[in-house]
Amino acid sequence: MIVVMKKGATRDQIDHMVVRVEEMNLKAHVIEGTERTVIAAIGEKREQAKQSLESGSGVDEVLPILAPYKVASREVKPEPTEVVVGSLHVGAGRLGIIAGPCSVEDEEQIMSTATAVKESGATALRGGAFKPRTSPYSFQGLKEQGLKLLAAARDLTGLAIVTEVMSPEDVPLVAEYADVLQIGARNMQNYRLLEAVGKSTRGVLLKRGPSATLDELLLAAEYVLNEGNPNVMLCERGIRTFESHTRFTLPLATVVYLHEKTHLPIVVDPSHGTGHTYLVPDMAAASVAAGADGLILEVHPDPERALSDGFQSLTFEQFGQTMQKVRAIADVVGRRI
Ligand code: PEP
Ligand code: MN
Known about the structure:
- There is one protein chain.
- This protein is of the alpha/beta class.
- It is about 35% helix and about 20% strand.
- The strands form three sheets. It has an eight-stranded parallel barrel with strand order 7-8-9-10-11-12-13-14, surrounded by seven helices. Strands 2-3-1-4 form a four-stranded antiparallel sheet, with helices on one face. Strands 5-6 form a two-stranded antiparallel sheet.
- Helix 3 packs parallel to helix 4 and helix 3 packs parallel to helix 11.
- The chain starts with a strand and ends with a helix.
- About 50% of the residues are buried.
- The site of manganese (II) ion has 5 residues, from loops.
């Protein structure tokens, strides 16, 4: 249920309703909108609870939440959410640009990339230290050493760090260095991991599983939100289809659909979504045209020698050119980097 407070309801009235909701063994999520505050009361719905909450002082109305996901839904929060993590602003008119290598490889690679992407207008640095690889024989990432290099790149450039965490046990370690914890596509439905990042105060970039529906993605986001972490960004990174001309199929209608259903910001990953460098610049521009709130792009100083995903990585120069296109489209659709 949503307890919609009257315009101008006082802090005491809001706090009182939180206590009332919790007394009914429901979880209370307070969402402060620009116009008024609502309290999402999550748990088993009972008609009696609805009537009892409706009589609270300062309460306007109590409504059921129809969507299966609750805190993520537009019903609870009609205004778009802006996630702000250090230098990265994503959502509500702000376009975040997360760029960097697939994997952190060495100091020279990450420092030069951080400097180059910052110069071209990136607002955050990506780089995997814990890598989910299809084969156990492929490069698995530099782990804590990689995290230290990312933190050094943040010291150098001021860019917020986005990096993947693969297991609940690693959350404290990765959160010590990172600003945004990336949940990889393969882990979208790892519910213990979602709960662990939900307990953290870092931003969360939740990637869509290649065979997950959008309802499943939103319910995965709900796991994070339900633990109290509101800083969730959703990421379309391509899905599995019968088509083989691209690594995955990148459905941009996702952006429009999700904006209808959720207030959370939507990031698009045209690198994994296409799997070919030459497709990335136009699909990045198309993502912004479709209303994306952010992009995550793989950039490498020497893609040919990259230890992972070189075939879909942009050179520094290509990233600069992509940013010019993206800026032009962002202007047209009213997004500010
Ligand atoms: C990545 O961002 O490098 C990555 C592994 O992405 P995904 O989880 O979308 O495959
Ligand atoms: Mn990659």
